[in-house]
């Protein structure tokens, strides 16, 4: 019974994510979430009492995306700056192909429409990247005077903002290309001079892959 309930909840969240991502919070109705799916309206209200609660749950699904990603990639990427580059590629994949991630980023930008229960999405993402930049400083790759928080804010804002523009049809620029170009522009200003050549070469191999 618990397994069935968990599957029903997952079905509802997935359907809601697709609608929230396509229509936004205001344009999505609860009846549309269950329409054409093997889920009753009663089952929807059993798991989520309101559209606000459902939107909050979609956002919450992705709050730990970057911390979990960092933990997964860490064993093969002990160098923090390389881990950051690899993570950004994975983030781009999620932003391009994962409806839950796309919906979360859109809803995070519509928190003022949702209500007080809507959690903050980007803060844990930014904090995860900030910690890795601080680690890159400790490892001798990044210049000490760089503000890790500001750079982390920039990266999350740039990638999530570009994803929204791509989905809105405002640009034909590929997210992967945008990500690679972003790193090529900012890395020279972040890295210690003696580390730039090595890290930029690594970026070339990631971009080529």
UniProtKB/TrEMBL annotation:
Q: Looking at the record's lineage, which domain of life comes first?
A: Bacteria
Cross-referenced Pfam families: TetR_C_45, TetR_N
Task: Print the keywords alphabetically.
Answer: DNA-binding, Transcription, Transcription regulation
Record bears the keyword Repeat: no
InterPro entries linked to this entry = ArpA-like (IPR047923), CprB_TetR_C (IPR054126), Homeodomain-like_sf (IPR009057), HTH-type_TetR-like_transc_reg (IPR050109), HTH_TetR (IPR001647), Tet_transcr_reg_TetR-rel_C_sf (IPR036271)
Task: Look up the DNA-binding region in the UniProt entry and give its residue ranges.
Answer: 29-48
HTH tetR-type domain location is 6-66
Q: Which PANTHER family match?
A: HTH-TYPE TRANSCRIPTIONAL REGULATOR BETI (PTHR30055:SF234), HTH-TYPE TRANSCRIPTIONAL REGULATOR RUTR (PTHR30055)
Q: NCBIfam families of this UniProt entry?
A: ScbR_bind_reg (NF041196)
Protein name, please?
ScbR family autoregulator-binding transcription factor
Organism, by scientific name, is: Actinomadura miaoliensis
